[in-house]
Amino acid sequence: MRLHEKIREGMIFLFVAFWLSGCSPITENNLIEEISPITFLSISKADEGKLKVSTIFPPLSKEDKIVISHEVDLLKEGIQKYNFNFYQEVKSGQMRMLVISEELGQEGIMSIVNTLLTDPDISPRIYLVIMRGNFEEFLESQLDNAENFDYSFYRMLKHYEDRNQGELTVVNLHQFKNLLYTPYSDPFLPIYSIQGDGVNYEGTALFQNDKLVETISSIDDRIFQLINNNHYLAVLPIREFEIVLGHVRSKIDVNIDSSNSTIFFTVSIDSKIEEYRGEKQLFDPQELENLKADIETYLEQQTYEFLKKMQELKVDPLQLGIQTKRPFSKPMEEEEWIDMFEKMYMNVKYNVNIDPLTDANSRRPNF
């Protein structure tokens, strides 16, 4: 009897010890010589509803690299298949990027996002990127030309995230999840395209829930960076007036009237002139004021058209619906907000402040 009690107490102790320590009864082998930590995955559509999962092996060692692709039904199945035909065990704990094809994004990526979120080995800080074009073929073409292309791509994304450079959209898994599951918001991701021997930043892909519905580029993407993403642009070229504004910082004030019929969108901008090739004499204060008025009118019209496009698509990446919340009243349903948003009138106002032209070299001390 005492023996049975000791065995039972021993089993209870072992269970509690494993539970408290968070350890699995099976210890994973993580010897660096025997594992191959992948740094990125590329996912695209395959035939018959399958996924095509690709990456570069070996990702870190100096051996000759190859691109390995598998067509699978489930994302985790792809990682399992890598273990079947590679001499080292594949680990996903060092994954830094997930590259998703544009076609797959248009079909929806919720299952992929949920799979990544529930994997404790995968960091929520991995970057999500939409790719236009055949990324697998591009990777194979780069093995001889730029074998560390994946690392260079990752460093570029990290640079623009850390320094808040305001030039392009950078979104990680945690941010995408918040935008996807938070009421009154729709997620967005950066979109790149394959052009020749490189990948070019195209703009920002807008999602309706988890499905890609539109890509904004050029001046629309510049405005998106100013009014939502970074609120800063290093340079803002405006070809219509042959001018480049630099160090553009914005402050946004958004209000919805009590009848929920009009959104008042006020944008205040501080900037300086980086380059000008027009005919105005900008040392003349009146000429500079006329140019500022022209730029304000132009940005108001472009922002108005951008907001109208969001209304037509029924997406809200700016989270404007939050402005409908009132003290002591029940928040409206998200579907109700989108229906209301589609019919609202947009009142856009820009206040542009431009530093007058000065000779920067005259401020420098003489040595």
Summarize the structure.
Helices cover 35% and strands 30% of the residues. By secondary structure, the protein is of the alpha/beta class.
Outline the fold blueprint:
Layout: H1 2-21, E1 35-37, E2 40-45, E3 51-57, E4 66-72, H2 75-84, E5 89-91, E6 97-101, H3 102-107, H4 110-117, E7 127-132, H5 135-145, H6 149-162, H7 173-181, E8 188-195, E9 198-208, E10 211-216, H8 218-229, E11 232-238, E12 243-256, E13 262-276, H9 285-313, H10 334-343, E14 345-355
Parallel strand pairs: 1-5, 2-6, 6-7, 7-8, 13-14
Antiparallel strand pairs: 2-3, 3-4, 8-9, 9-10, 11-12, 12-13
Helix pairs in contact: 9-10
Protein name: Ger(X)C family spore germination protein
Pfam families: Spore_GerAC (PF05504), Spore_GerAC_N (PF25198)
InterPro entries: GerAC_N, Spore_GerAC-like, Spore_GerAC-like_C, Spore_GerAC_C_sf
Can you give a write-up of this model?
This protein is of the alpha/beta class and 367 residues long. It folds into two domains: 34-216, no CATH class; 217-358, Nutrient germinant receptor protein C, domain 3 (GMP Synthetase, Chain A, domain 3), CATH 3.30.300.210. It is built from ten helices and 14 strands. The protein has helices at residues 2-21, 75-84, 102-107, 110-117, 135-145, 149-162, 173-181, 218-229, 285-313, 334-343; strands at 35-37, 40-45, 51-57, 66-72, 89-91, 97-101, 127-132, 188-195, 198-208, 211-216, 232-238, 243-256, 262-276, 345-355. The strands form three sheets. It has an eight-stranded mixed beta sheet with strand order 4-3-2-6-7-8-9-10, sandwiched between helices. Strand 3 and strand 4 form a beta hairpin. Helix 9 (285-313) packs across helix 10 (334-343). It is globular and about 75 Å long.
